[in-house]
Amino acid sequence: MASSDRRTGSDDQREHILVAAVELLDEVGPSGLSTRAVATAAGVQTPTLYRLFGDKDALLDAVASFGFESYLAEKRAFVPSRDPVEDLRRGWETHVEFGLANPAIYTLMYANLRPVRHPAAVTENRAILRAMLDRANQQGLLRVPVEAAMVAIESSTTGAVLFLLAQPEPARDAQLIRPLRDIVLDALTEQATLRPTDPIADRTRSLLGIITPMRDVDPVTEAGFSVFEAGLLREWLARLDNAYRTHR
């Protein structure tokens, strides 16, 4: 068998084990997720787990990241709005909704964090939050350093979700912790200055956002315009937006 075939077979077996482990996690919770139980659920020998994952901590990390993937996919696809503070609120809601909908995975990920071990999915989620806070900071909307804001948001969201998961299922109402969200974000951020709405200005900014090149792809030149014409269009729109900001 070629090495690529062996690698594909190992990847398939690894995914089969992770699917079985996530199903087992939903049934018995994190405390019941032993290597022997996972091996039995997946129909493999325990040494196979160690060969594919290394050790128990690495297996649990892989299970958590596998179960967390749908949440991360949603966060990766998150389209920033013009208001970074509102984006932080949306991010909070997404985090809480996932935790309440997937209590076993969430508990596995966050209830047993140690300084020397952060699952890969937790690390990626922190990077997404940092990017949101960096954007708010660049716009002068943070009252505290980015690192301090991260600690406040992570501790409050995680603590609030774990608190709700400790309640009987009928009492796990996300509305109960929404005031906490507002208190934390209000303490960390400045609200963007509100201006009277103007349909021309709003459409100008929306169009500017749509035609801004992303990852070296220019949607205007892709539509058949020359580089000069694309630049001129953006210049006119920017001047119109600037005129609105100046005269309001």
Give the mean pLDDT: 81
Report strand %.
under 5%
Separate helix tally: 12
Fraction in helix = over 70%
Number of strands: 0
Shape: globular
- The figure for the number of domains is 3
Radius of gyration equals 23 Å
- Unreliable residue runs: 1-5
Cα end-to-end separation = 71 Å
Question: What characterizes the major β-sheet?
Answer: none
Structural class by secondary-structure content: mainly alpha
H/E element order = HHHHHHHHHHHH
If you had to describe this structure to a student in words, what would you say it looks like?
The protein has 248 residues and is an all-alpha fold. It folds into 3 domains: 9-54, Arc Repressor Mutant, subunit A (Orthogonal Bundle); 70-188; 199-247, no CATH class. The chain is 71% helix and 0% strand. It has 12 helices and no strands. Helix 4 (56-76) crosses helix 6 (103-110) and helix 5 runs parallel beside helix 8. The longest helix has 26 residues, at 3-28. Residues 1-5 have low confidence and may be disordered.
Quick overview:
By secondary structure, the protein is an all-alpha fold. Helices cover 71% and strands 0% of the residues.
